[in-house]
Write a structure and sequence with these properties.
Two copies of one chain form a homodimer. Chain A has eleven helices and eight strands. Chain A starts with 10 loop residues before the first strand and ends with a helix. Chain A is globular. Chain A folds into two domains: 137 residues, HAD superfamily/HAD-like (Rossmann fold, 3-Layer(aba) Sandwich); 82 residues, Putative phosphatase, domain 2 (DNA polymerase, domain 1), CATH 1.10.150.240. In chain A, strand 4, helix 7 and strand 5 form a beta-alpha-beta unit. By secondary structure, the first copy, chain A, is an alpha/beta fold. At the A-B interface, helix 7 of A face helix 7 of B.
Chain lengths: 239, 239
């Protein structure tokens, strides 16, 4: 007999990059698939890391009010333009650049996500509350059969986590109170920000999320649920 | 061998009320389920029709700029308050009113939707582009296993169809051009407005959608696909 430890929670909000999908190996694989036939030979993981390194600075321009909101697809495109010279990619045409930018929609979920989500979905609504765009989240859902309830997050809120508006706008979109949600992430700062808005919190560890030595092996704070993967998380949610 | 008559089309935008789900019998059933145990005895279909009759006027206040955008849940709530005296429902408490308003999320898809969507989904992205809210569309998807790619439509656009912004904002959200979408609806005016923004169009007839004698038996205009239900439509799309 399963008991439900959080009867008020109706829906789960997921961080997606790292928490649900493996962006690093996926972006490296897509870059190699697209660029190798054109004669390029890079360290694909280094390229993925360099691209990702400009993600937070790009969002910070929006969070700080320095630039108006643009979705992550645009931030990624600008970041790609910035790193191209460093990797000798100055001569790529527009079609190839657009194809490369789609790498962020072609990522694979970690192996525990499919069976974990199948159990969670039986009782809870599952929505991305990511800084990624609607287009990226919908495609990641399709590719990995995640069956999102709907895509929420930055594009609905027109701002980026950890700004409060992202959690609140996402909660309002489903007509539920923040206490009826649990934010689930591999990143403690995301959970701390969600908790400050009244959401429940679940930490799913992803040690090595961006290569050896990266990721949180332990949560940096006290959260409602702490799990080692989504099967463990599903069990702890009583599903 | 199936041929694909619209190779450019990547995604289908669906009108939902009437086109995908039977709002009239669903709202009548939910009203009866909630109100009959409280001792009320109404003509439940007349009640559903009266409620629905205030839907277009409520959206028109937003379209015309007379009132700021509010989502359909709010429009439905105001409409319910307006019709309550006519049905002797003045004394309902807040909990019952909120429960009644959820009737619009508890509607059943027409029987052809499940098998039709299964065929369409194999090749195309399926998104609601409805005047309904994110919450309603997500719940209708969950209830009927529609597996929406994501919810688009009025709430993303902050305006109501047939205003151009709703079709365009929905298209922009997936980073596709309007010509890569087909709007699918039982209502010719919706399709004419979508075509004016460059979308392809598909008419799926729902004669009797709101009772005997209602609904379009024939499309009122020339559309790319004309089908009698979603199985017919799936076949005509080459899926």
């Amino acid at each position: 007999m399963q008991t439900n430890p959080f009867p008020e929670v109706q829906a789960l909000f997921f961080d997606v990059f790292s928490t649900v999908v493996d962006w690093r190996n996926g972006v490296a694989r897509e870059a190699e698939r697209i660029l190798k036939p054109l004669g390029y030979s890079l360290d694909w993981l280094v390229f993925a890391d360099a691209w990702r390194a400009l993600y937070q600075p790009g969002m910070e321009e929006v969070r700080s009010g320095q630039r108006p909101f643009v979705k992550v697809d645009v931030i990624n495109q600008r970041a790609l333009d910035q790193i191209r010279p460093r990797f000798g990619l100055e001569k790529l045409d527009e079609v190839t650049l657009a194809e490369l930018n789609l790498a962020w929609s072609r990522l694979d979920a970690w192996p525990d996500v499919g069976p974990g989500f199948a159990r969670l979905r039986a009782r809870l609504r599952l929505c991305p509350c990511s800084n990624g765009s609607i287009a990226i989240m919908a495609e990641l859902g399709r590719r990995n059969d995640l069956r999102w309830h709907t895509v929420l997050g930055s594009e609905i809120a027109q701002d980026y986590k950890p700004k409060p508006r992202v959690y609140l706008a996402s909660a309002e979109a489903l007509n539920l109170k923040p206490s009826q949600y649990m934010m689930v992430a591999a990143h403690s700062l995301d959970l701390i920000a969600a908790a400050a808005q009244g959401l429940r919190t679940g930490h799913v560890g992803r040690p090595g999320e961006a290569g050896p030595g990266t990721g949180e092996t332990e949560p940096m704070g006290r959260f409602d649920v702490v799990a080692k993967d989504f099967l463990d998380f599903a069990a702890k949610m009583g599903t």
